[in-house]
Amino acid sequence: MASHSSGHASSRAPRWRQVVGHHRTGRARIGKWYLDRARGQLYRRENVESCQKGGTLVITCQACGRKHERALRCGVGLLCRSCRGKQAEQRRMRLQRSRDAVLRMGRKRGLARRRRPGGGVD
Question: Domain residue spans in the chain?
Fold first, then answer.
């Protein structure tokens, strides 16, 4: 059985170089992800506090010129009450659409007919 210490470990860059993105292989992208995530954690509280101030973003369609307003949100439901409420509202809407779709499919197949054995589901 071959030994795992065939000299490859000494040719690899130190772990900190891989994380920071100094390695010449594809690890730079992975290092960037970790750095961006760490930066997001550093500014998380500031983002949550700015979310509470309630700014809006105006999006203008370049084709038709129609304008849409969107609330600027931090998206951190664990810390931000308004984002938590908005996320819960979106989950409820998604659940309701899914429920309606399942009931509609059942009605198409005749599962909601009262005289059908096992039917009559509303």
Answer: 13-42, 44-108
